[in-house]
Amino acid sequence: MTVKNSAPLHLHEVKINDPFWSRYLEIVRKEMIPYQWDVLNDRANITIEKERNDETIPSEKSHAIENFKIAAGLKEGNHYGWVFQDSDVYKWLEAVAYSLHHTYDESLKYLADEVIDLLELAQEKDGYLNTYFSIEEPERRFKKLAESHELYCAGHYIEAAVAYYETTKNEKALKIACKLADCIEASFGDEPGKIKGYDGHEEIELALAKLYQLTGESRYLELSRFFLYERGTDTTFFERQRKEDTGKRHVIEGMTHRPLSYYQAHKPILEQESAEGHAVRLVYLCAAMADVAYLSHDQEMLDACRKLWKSIVQKRMYITGGIGSTVDGEAFTSDYDLPNDTMYCETCASIGLIFFAYNMLKNEADGTYADTLERALYNTVISGMALDGKHFFYVNPLEVNPKNSVNDPGKSHVKVTRPEWFGCACCPPNLARMLTSLNKYIYSIKDDVIYTNLYLTNQSSVVVNGTKIELQQETNYPWDGDIKFLIQPDAPAAFGLAVRIPSWSKTYKLYLNGEEIKEQPHNGYVIIDREWQGNEELLVSLDMNIQVWSANPYVKANVNKIAIQRGPLIYCLEEVDNGDNLHLIRIPKTEPFSYRFEENLFGGVGVIEVTAKKRVVQEEWENQLYATDLDEEYEEKKVTFIPYYCWANRASGEMQVWVAKE
Asked: How far apart (Å, rounded) are the C-alpha atoms in residues 222 and 218?
């Protein structure tokens, strides 16, 4: 095993000291990671909820660490939980790796090292690592790939091991990962005797690309390319495996009816024109395609990524950056089908969309990728976690009525308060690793230009053409649109600094050392290309005016409705501020919106108010379902909008993003 000497920018050269995001990093370190550790060890006194009405969902306990102890021979017993539950532990480990970079914690590292020791014991001699199949059905290894999630779990461990090695230089973690990858390489491929197929849930492709980048072993990149290009070429693969399988029980109940599009296996990847199937799987596939296209200079694969990107963001994405329009299959449906109260918008799906956007930015400097990354991050992603770090949303709705969530089986997945944990607990640890890895999304470097993708207070050090450059951002974003950059190269150096002008910022101003810059954005960035002398100051001022958005007329759910945005944040109405029956509120065209910052609300948050009209329900409607010739009456009502990510942190009640307009 060899390891490249280059240290990735996101781990070692960016320090976040931002008021908004430092709070999240501390919540993850102090609350979320310890809490999740207790859950994984079945020590937390909590209620584990089913994420929808489905009695087959295991929700008695986590049992995730216990499964590894049984697989390692340290305890006796049976596997409990979903077949993919190993990945909960792996994502927890990856979050620990990133968190240790921000704040070194010896006790936390000790726990992580213990987990790695346990994984080494659970790993089989040939490198295979999966608790369900090692404990229950070793004879079915790699024989039910449509539902087994074996390569999915393996991918999550490999990603965790790469991150943990980069932070701690723990060679045992990396050796386990390489041994596991070698086991997969020995089992899959075009050669005779190998499996010419792929996992039902994409993830291994992402992980192998990262393992290649760390180790320089080109065979890992080639194996990732194999899985990507093999997908969808043989539409009989999953069905043949099902027929040949000798197992007496389902690995996962209810999967046999899923169409191939659910797995993105209905066509070869280069032929897929639209975002189809399970939303998380789709964006994990796309993120892997974008990374492999970048690493292998594969133009055809990059072109395929562009098609799928446009399908998502132009026709199948919610204004919050959420994706997945239906609970059935947690999936995309059709263009412009974006219902607000039955959709899925899984937290993991928006996290995957961020992965996709970031990997596209590696290929091409286009601000639309960073815009979408920011949209998903500030809205759906952080909405997925309560402000206490111990309650989570699996589904992120844009409209909620508590009675419907209780009484309508088709809306049982739409929670009105964040549960403590889920039977399918993919989202909480995914959130933890996303938030703690925020460093890597701030900047990207391409063709001697440093691109600023996110605005948050940080101190960074990058190298361009052999010159070390200290970059410092200072801002009160997202509440304020003013950002100050301090640029300090070691010596005078020529390079570009690209400042992103978000698509929501209708106006902007730039001042370099006190002089205004009149450059126009190109692909969403203003590029300042010059010889930098040192101790230079760049001031950026973005447009933080309140904006009123409409949806495409083909989005039937939002006809004659508007959504409110300020900066990167989407806003919503909540019952605790505005009373019930939010659907009766109308926003007049001429009424001005006002903004103020509330220090004591949600730890400090900007709220928006407007004088609206609310329909009066007249007495004539009592005991009458329909009527003719009954005039509508309205009364004035001041309504309050809060940032979408803050909803459901106070009381159970109605919530609405899209509001009727006059």
From this structure: 6
